[in-house]
């Protein structure tokens, strides 16, 4: 009978540990479910965010493409006009700020141009 007593004590301790582990396991599984649900919600939020960013990037790419199509001919036109002839004269800054620039006239002290 003496030998049976340690076995009974060991079985009781093992049963108590198993039961306490079971309660802890249920709580652990509930926490895992909560974490999984939270992560799934965050992932759905990130998917929406990436979808919005993708749409905005498409709009930006279309705008840049349109700008390039418009600016290339304008740039070519401006550069061709600049290369055709140099500017005759640079207007005075005061005339530019006032509005219409004054026409430049030859100075009366210089005399007629030859």
Summarize the model shown.
With 114 residues, the chain is mainly α. The chain has a domain at 12-79.
Describe this structure in words.
The N and C termini lie far apart (142 Å). This protein is mostly helical. The protein has a domain of 68 residues. The longest helix is centred in the middle third of the chain and has 81 residues. The model has no long low-confidence stretch (mean pLDDT 77). 0% of the residues are buried. The radius of gyration is 43 Å and the shape is rod-shaped. It is 76% helix and 0% strand. It is built from two helices and no strands.
Give the radius of gyration.
Answer: 43 Å
Shape verdict:
rod-shaped
Instruction: Supply the helix-strand structural class.
Output: mainly alpha
Q: Beta fraction of the residues?
A: under 5%
Percentage of residues assigned to helices: over 70%
Largest sheet: none
The total count of strands amounts to: 0
Helix tally equals 2
Order of helices and strands: HH
Task: State the separation between the terminal residues, measured CA to CA.
Answer: 142 Å
Determine the mean pLDDT: 77
Low-confidence stretches: none
């Amino acid at each position: 009978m003496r030998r049976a007593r340690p076995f009974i004590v060991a079985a009781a301790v093992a049963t108590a540990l198993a039961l306490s582990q079971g309660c802890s396991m249920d709580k652990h599984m509930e926490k895992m479910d909560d974490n999984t649900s939270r992560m799934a919600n965050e992932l759905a939020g990130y998917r929406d965010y990436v979808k919005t960013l993708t749409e905005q990037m498409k709009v930006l790419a279309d705008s840049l493409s349109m700008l390039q199509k418009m600016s290339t001919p304008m740039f070519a036109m401006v550069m061709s006009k600049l290369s055709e002839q140099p500017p005759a004269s640079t207007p005075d800054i005061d005339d530019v700020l006032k509005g219409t620039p004054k026409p430049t006239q030859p100075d009366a002290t210089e005399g007629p141009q030859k």
